[in-house]
Amino acid sequence: xxxxxxxxxxxxxxxxxxxxxxxxxxxxxxxxxxxxxxxxxxxxxxxxxxxxxxxxxxxxxxxxxxxxxxxxxxxxxxxxxxxxxxxxxxxxxxxxxxxxxxxxxxxxxxxxxxxxxxxxxxxxxxxxxxxxxxxxxxxxxxxxxxxxxxxxxxxxxxxxxxxxxxxxxxxxxxxxxxxxxxxxxxxxxxxxxxxxxxxxxxxxxxxxxxxxxxxxxxxxxxxxx
Length: 225
Ligand SMILES: *Cc1c(COP(=O)(O)O)cnc(C)c1O
Prior knowledge:
By secondary structure, the protein is an alpha/beta fold. The protein has helices spanning 3-15, 32-40, 51-57, 78-81, 94-106, 130-136, 142-145, 164-182, 203-208, 218-221, and strands spanning 22-26, 45-48, 66-69, 87-91, 111-117, 149-156, 194-196, 213-216. The protein has one domain (3-221): TIM Barrel (Alpha-Beta Barrel).
């Protein structure tokens, strides 16, 4: 590992992100040594996609790391991460809400979540369709239905395309949907404030559309193998 190169990429990434926007360093597939090197440069929020990988790495790294689960989560894997994870970004079904609520309750903690919205024109991406979320929000207070969960906002992934205008439109639609849902009164509007959007390839568009959390892997750690 080239620590000087890592430090350089980290500094450039931080310089591109305004104050008030949270940088989550996406460390999927990276070794414990690479993560520790970035930790030593001051980074504390890390994002992982695979529950078992996160479960295995977490005890080997400093306890004050804030772990974000950003991938697609299967219900039977919730138990691996529910005891310690800081924020679950990719909640994409009502069933998963129930499983997270149960496991958080069993672990005696409140679990912060973001609802993932399918904004891309790609079948492979996960998430609620906007109308599915609207329907979810007509069923009464989310907090009352899933008392161990804390609803913090929305997450989305834009289409992988060179069409910057399309990416911008997708992020803007996500931002508009967050405002719309916050106004329904089914979540505490002041707490439903996060918009997790933006990765290495679409950071600028996400920031312009009002992202509050960016998930950056490649631009910090280099290309994944
Ligand atoms: C891998 C991944 C990222 C980071 O992608 P980069 O292009 O490496 O910045 C962000 N979000 C999710 C959900 C990911 O799976």
